[in-house]
Each structure stands twice: as structure tokens, then as C-alpha cells.
Amino acid sequence: MPKSLLRDVAIDCISDMAQHLPEGCELFVIACRPGKDDFDLVLPSPEANLNNALDALRRQGLSIDGANIYKQAVCDLVVGALAMGKQNNNPPPAGHWGQQFWDIGRAEGELQEKLVKALRLVRKELDACQRVIHYAGGFDPAYVNDAQAAIKVADAVLEKIPG
After folding, report:
1. Position 38 in a domain
2. φ, ψ dihedrals at 48, nearest 5°
3. Which of 63, 105, 112, 144 gets the highest tally of CB atoms within 10 A of its CB?
């Protein structure tokens, strides 16, 4: 049966079926061919809300753990918004639901920038102190060795950060 004919038949049947439902119920007719989108047919009754249909499907076992393209697209948007926010570029349009994730990424990016500046300053000052100690002489070598090891740790981290 062609999709258009099935659609016409389903539309005719929805009102008949809805008359037999308890008051307040919403009716959906859904036809699909698994793995293909050539026959997707979703027909809600006029008062129906797709969110209510999703809730009903979840109560029947539909899980967020299952694989589906919609969930993958949502996750991709969240990850992208976090990354773009961290880099402080490409913010979402005003009022977009992804803004909260962009803001989280931006906050993390700002924190990283502050930590890097602080680490660079500490490394610079520790190095300056080490030079004074080295030229002055007479200080405990263990202090010098530990400070040099700390500078190496800071350098190793800073090498991974551009700028």
C-alpha cells in the first residue's frame, strides 16, 4: 500500500479510534520501516502532544541508553557548544537551548586562561628566586633541587598550552 493511501486511511480511522478512548487520552498512529526513513508516518490526533507520546514510550521501555540519531545529534550539539564556549567562539543564537552548554564551556575556558597565567607567573617568580639563590650561594641544596623539579613540572604543563 502506498504511503499516501495509508495516510488517508489512518486519518479516517483516527477519529473513529479516538471515540473509544477515555477522556483526556491522546492518540497517535505511527508507521515506520526500521532502518529506513522512506515510510515514516506520524499522525497525531488534533489534541495530541508529541512530548506526551515520548513519555508514554519511555514508560514502555524506551531508554536514553539506546542508540538513535536524534540523541546523537543532541549529544553532538552539547559537545560542540562546550568546545566552542571553551574557545570563546561561535556562540549559539540568542535564546537557543545550547547557550547553557556554551556558557559552561566559556567558564571553563576562562578558568583555564586564569590558571595558565597564574602558573606562568609562579614559574617566572620561582625561576627568579632560584637564580638569586644560585648567585648568592650558601642555601640548602635540597630547596634548590625541589624548586628546580617544580619548575620542570610547570614547564611540562605549559608546553602543552599554546601562547
Report:
1. yes
2. -75, 150
3. 105
CA geometry: angle at 81 spanning 75 and 85, to 5°?
150
At 102, which amino acid appears? Answer: W
Examine residue 7 and state whether it is found in any structural domain, yes or no: yes
User: One digit per residue, pLDDT tens: the chain, 163 residues?
Assistant: 676 787 788 777 877 887 888 888 888 888 888 888 777 888 887 778 888 888 888 888 777 777 778 888 999 999 999 999 999 999 999 999 999 999 999 999 999 999 999 999 988 888 888 788 778 876 666 666 777 788 888 888 888 887 6
Residue numbers of the domain that contains 155: 106-159
- CA–CA gap between residue 31 and residue 55 (Å, rounded): 18
- Is residue 87 included in any domain, yes or no? no
